[in-house]
Amino acid sequence: MAFRTWAKLVGTAFGAAALVGAGQLGLAYGLGVLSFSRVVEVTTRDAWTTQLAWVSWFALTAAAAGGLAARSHLTSKAGAGTRLIGGIAAGLGAAAIVPLTMQPARSAQVAGVDAVFVIGACAVLGAAAGIFAAWAALGRNAARWSLLTMSAVAWLFAIVSVAPSLRSGEQVPAVRLGVLDAGFVPDGLAEQASLLTMPALALIAGVAVGLIARRRQLSTVAIALAGLPGPALFTVAYLIAGPGSTRAQELPYWAAMTATGAGVLGSVLAAVLGRGPETDRPRPPAAAEPAPDRPPLPQRDAQPESAIAKAATKAGPGLPGAGTPPAATGRATVAPRAAVAARAAVAAQRTDDELRPSDTGVITMPPFDGFTPPQPQKPDGEISDWVSGLGR
C-alpha cells in the first residue's frame, strides 16, 4: 500500500473511533444513562457496576465504528496485517474517551473505590479489546452486520428505558446495558427479561445475519461465525465491569456470558439447516463431452445392405453362418469364414481389371521413376532383337 493509502486508513480509523466514542458519551450524559455525580453506597454498588459496563461498551463500539469507517480505504490486496494496523488505530481513537470519563468521575463518591482510576481502567480495557472488533469489522461483511444490529438494539433499549423519566422530569433510574429497564415493565417480568433478553436477541440476530450471509453466498465458516461479533461486545463489557453483588446485576451478567454462544448458535443454524444440493453454492458447469468419432449404431432391426453381407446371405450351406443373415446386435456382424466366402463371391463377378487389393490380398507397388520393369519373355526367335532393344 502507498503511503497516502496508509495515512487515509489510519487517519479514518482513529478519527471515526474518537468521534463515535465522544458522541456516545455525550448522548449518554444527556439522557442520564451515565451519571457520576450521584453518591453510591455499598448497598447500591450495582449502580456503579452498571455504569462501568456502559463505559466499556462505549469504548468497544467506538473502536468497531472506526473499523467500519476505514473499510472503504482497504484495497483488494490488503491482508491481515493491514487490517490489524487499522484495528490498532481504531483502538487508539476509542481510547480518547478515557479523559472524557475520568474527569466527570472525580465527582463520584463510591464507597471504598477509587472512582477515577476504575473508570479510566475500564475505558482503556474496552479500547484495547475493541482492536479485535475493529479488525473483524475491517475484514468481514457479516461482522459489520452483526455489530451494527446489536449496537442499534442496545441503544434502542436504553432510549425506551429512559423515555418515561424524561417526560415526567423524574430522576433517571439505573439503566442496565442490554436490558429493557422501562418503568412500564412489571418488576417480576423485568427480572426474568434481564436474564433472557440478550441471549434471545443474540439468537435472533445470529439467524438473521446468517441468512443474509448465506444469501450473499459467503463461505460456510463465514456464515457460521456471522452471529459472533455483536453479542461478543456485550460479553466483554460485562466481563470488564464484573458481576455485581446483587441479583439485579448478576442476571444480566450471566445473560451476557451466554449471548455470544446464542449468537453463534443462530448463525450456525442458518448455515446448516435446509442446506442441500439445491441450496449449495453454484458449481461451474461441467465440460461438454466430445462427440464420438464413429457414426451412430444401426437399429436392432436394421439389415446389412453391403455387398459383402448380401453375398454372405447367398453363400452355400457348407460355410458356417452362411445362408442366414447375421444376427443384428446393434452392429452388422458377419462370421469370419462367411466374410471370406463373400469376398470371393464378389471377386469372382469382376474382371481382371476390376480386381481390388482387398479381393486378392496382394498390393502392387507403383514403378519407380527412371526404371522400366522387365517385359514378359518373348519367343526364342526374337531374343536377339529384344536384347538389342535393351541396349538402345
TrEMBL record:
Transmembrane segments: 52-70, 82-103, 115-138, 145-166, 193-213, 220-241, 253-273
Comp. bias intervals (Low complexity): 309-348
Entry keyword annotation includes Iron: no
Ranges where the record places region Disordered: 275-392
Keyword annotations: Membrane, Transmembrane, Transmembrane helix
Highest taxon above the source species: Bacteria
Protein name: Uncharacterized protein
